[in-house]
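Risk register update: the risk of archive-format incompatibility is retired. Evidence:
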Amino acid sequence: VYLSKLDNTSSALETIDTILEEDPEHSSARELKIKVLTDSQQWSILVDYLEDNMLRENDSEKRSSLRQQI
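Archived output:
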């Protein structure tokens, strides 16, 4: 809602972060956070987020994918 109707990136990220605090493995929220950070060109935050995810990821293919995104 914050993004599509109100174009409010900061509120959208706050909502996504709240979801991820409750469920860090919520795949839709993780993907949406990457999209929002990319679309808003928040590169340093995006890189930090991708690096954190890469360190937590157990699946080698997913780690590789995250590394490529960085």
